[in-house]
Design a protein that fits this description.
The structure holds two protein chains of two kinds.
Chain A (H helix, E strand, L loop, with lengths): L2 H19 L4 H14 L5 H6 L7 H17 L4 H12 L4 H18 L2 H19 L4 H14 L8 H10 L3 H27 L7 H8 L10 H19 L1 H4 L3 H16 L3 H4 L5 H19 L2 H13 L3 H18 L2 H19 L5 H13 L8 H13 L5 H27 L1
Helix pairs in contact in A: 1-2, 1-16, 2-16, 4-9, 4-14, 5-6, 5-7, 6-7, 6-8, 6-10, 7-8, 7-21, 8-10, 8-21, 9-19, 9-20, 10-22, 12-14, 16-19, 17-19, 18-20, 18-22, 19-20, 20-22
Chain B lengths: L2 H4 L5 E3 L4 H11 L3 E5 L5 E6 H8 L2 H5 L9 H10 L5 H5 L7 E2 L1 E3 L5 H11 L3 E4 L8 E4 H19 L1
Helix pairs in contact in B: 2-3, 7-8
């Protein structure tokens, strides 16, 4: 091993440790790691900006940017608040039915939106409903964030790891729907059953409190029906654009940016409002990660590990898929699944290149494991951290272990169900 | 003009004061900010009145203002009642609330000096450091502006 390779590994592992420890802002760590790779000569401007294999994946960055802008406009409409209150009233205030409705809404929204955005949108209205019902919001918040992590697995745009996998593997929106959505539906049904087992004793029914939920006027949440109609229309167009990628050959990033531009134009909202929900720090974090991983690719580290993995796997791709799925779930429960998938994607690409069609299910194993593993602990996914923060500020703190005891069970069950799905469907 | 001529008394609350009582003080005296004393009774902090709303308005409404519209009057009454169980101390510990150290000015400070210090400290209330008075005496922004504008008008009249 040359000095350059050793130094590159030290930078990479050091940055990973710092990101996992959350002692410093993750975007700064990733960018500093990327800068160190440049100083080491592991990458350069041509590699960073123009290399499809070792540079910044602009499809990922711009897909996220476009969707963040669309959500930023859509949330002005009050659609999410309307939907949640409408569902609670349809459930006639029965706490477990309300919980189930909110689980389904969160999962479906998460399939179309980023998980963090979804929980940020749904948490306030959940607190309102729990307040009206005079029940603890904790079971609602925990089940919602888990539903978000499960539901986000269903589509290409639902979870950042999916976006990375789709871009690196050349998978389309339809590929994700066909391969992931059926599993996610089954997992959600099971998850609702688990929620009943875990939380039913905390959900008491009080007819007097139900009247307070029924008194909520969800129509008042929608301030501009025109804005709502335009937002829903453009989102439908964007989803159609994703689904028709095979025909139009337009990358999801281009479709999302076109949708964001169209929506901004139609609504005439100020640029400040349009970009208000763009998480610049997240986008920079992704860019830094891509540069760091690209550095390792250029140094030949990823190829070496890939060769070793290929030799270890041989032609036992079923075993490799199970190992990758379970391993990814375990690792993603401990560290952020975004850097994990960004690192694993070139490795899996190497395995798939060596194994051909037989190895392609490894992409799904990686995606499923990384997405579901996020539920395992309180720090397994960004959405978990966000919800814990909201609960603490509301005065209903959820401790790390309180979340994790439920999370480990849910992750174990969902991963255990996913293993036979992968084996039966692909091998 | 002496600063003591412009001084006034203000209600002072403590960290144990309830949200509802704090709201009554603000409403009763049309306060722009609330002075909070420590356990010895000495004024220590100033919380802008708008930040005291944090005790009256639940987090979920502040995080998503559109939800306020879905509540009926009965629900709103419940919210105000719930503020009775919360205290000013919660505001002092909330990172999202603007809590300023009390601004202390000398009794011989000029109006420009007081206005400048208020602008720099982002506070509309200053405590006058006057050992001659046992009760704390304050000067508030509207009084400073009123005195400054009056002085300007008088100068303009005498020049004319």
């Amino acid at each position: 091993m040359t000095f350059q390779v050793v130094a590159g590994l030290v930078v990479f592992i050091g940055a990973y440790a710092l990101i996992a420890s959350e002692k410093l802002p993750r975007a700064q760590v990733a960018l500093a790691g990327g800068a160190a790779m440049v100083l080491l000569g592991a990458t350069d401007e041509a590699g960073i900006f123009f290399s499809e294999h070792s540079g910044v994946d602009w499809n990922v960055i711009f897909l996220l940017l476009g969707m963040m802008m669309i959500v930023g406009i859509l949330r002005q409409s009050g659609a999410f608040e309307f939907l949640a209150i409408w569902a609670a009233k349809k459930a006639r205030g029965r706490p477990f039915v309300v919980m189930t409705m909110l689980i389904i809404i969160t999962a479906v929204l998460s399939a179309m939106l980023d998980n963090v955005t979804t929980v940020l949108l749904i948490a306030p209205v959940t607190l309102l409903i729990a307040d009206r019902l005079a029940v603890s919001p904790i079971p609602f918040l925990i089940t919602q964030v888990m539903a978000s992590n499960i539901g986000g697995a269903a589509t290409l745009i639902g979870d950042p790891p999916n976006i990375i996998v789709a871009s690196r593997a050349g998978l389309t929106f339809v590929d994700f729907l066909v391969n992931m959505a059926p599993l996610v539906v089954v997992l959600l049904v099971v998850f609702i059953g688990l929620a009943w087992l875990l939380f039913r004793k905390q959900l008491t029914y009080d007819p007097e409190r139900v009247a307070k939920v029924m008194a909520l006027n969800e129509r008042e949440a929608i301030k501009s029906p025109r804005l709502l109609a335009m937002s829903v229309g453009v989102i439908a167009l964007v989803l159609a654009g994703f689904a028709l990628q095979g025909v139009t050959h337009l990358e999801p990033a281009v479709v999302a940016l076109m949708g964001a531009g169209l929506l901004a134009l139609l609504t005439g909202l100020e640029a400040r409002v349009v970009v208000a929900d763009v998480e610049w720090e997240t986008l920079l974090f992704f860019a830094g990660l891509f540069v760091m991983v690209g550095g390792l690719v250029n140094l030949g580290v990823i190829d070496r590990i890939g060769e070793a993995a290929t030799a270890a796997v041989g032609d036992n791709y079923a075993g490799a898929a199970v190992g990758l799925l379970v391993g990814s779930a375990v690792i993603s429960g401990v560290i952020d699944n975004i850097p994990y998938v960004a690192t694993m994607a070139p490795l899996v690409a190497g395995l798939v290149a060596a194994g051909g069609v037989a190895a392609e299910p490894l992409w799904w194993a990686l995606t499923i494991g990384a997405d579901l593993g996020g539920n395992a602990t309180a720090v397994g996914a960004s959405a978990n951290v966000v919800v814990l923060g909201i609960a603490r500020r509301y005065g209903a703190p959820i401790s790390f272990w309180e979340f994790t005891k439920y999370g480990l069970l849910v992750t174990a069950v969902t991963v255990a169900l996913s293993v036979p799905y992968v084996l039966l469907r692909y091998f | 003009m002496q600063l003591s001529d412009l001084a006034c008394s203000l209600p002072v609350v403590t960290r144990h004061t309830s949200g509802l009582e704090a709201a009554r003080r603000i409403a009763g005296d049309r306060l722009t900010a609330l002075v909070v004393a420590d356990d010895t009774g000495r004024p220590r902090s100033v919380i802008p009145a708008v930040d005291v709303l944090g005790l009256l308005i639940p987090l979920y409404l502040r995080e998503d203002v559109r939800l306020a519209a879905v509540l009926d009057d009965a629900a709103a009454d419940e919210l105000w009642s719930a503020a009775g169980q919360r205290t000013v101390g919660e505001l002092l510990e909330d990172d999202d609330v603007n809590v300023f150290d009390i601004l202390v000015v000398e009794p011989d400070a000029t109006l420009v000096e007081v206005a400048t210090l208020m602008a720099a400290a982002h506070t509309s209330i200053a405590l006058i450091d006057d050992p001659d008075h046992e009760e704390p005496r304050f000067i508030i922004l509207p009084t400073v502006l009123d005195a400054a504008l009056t002085a300007r008008r008088l100068r303009g009249a005498s020049e004319a």
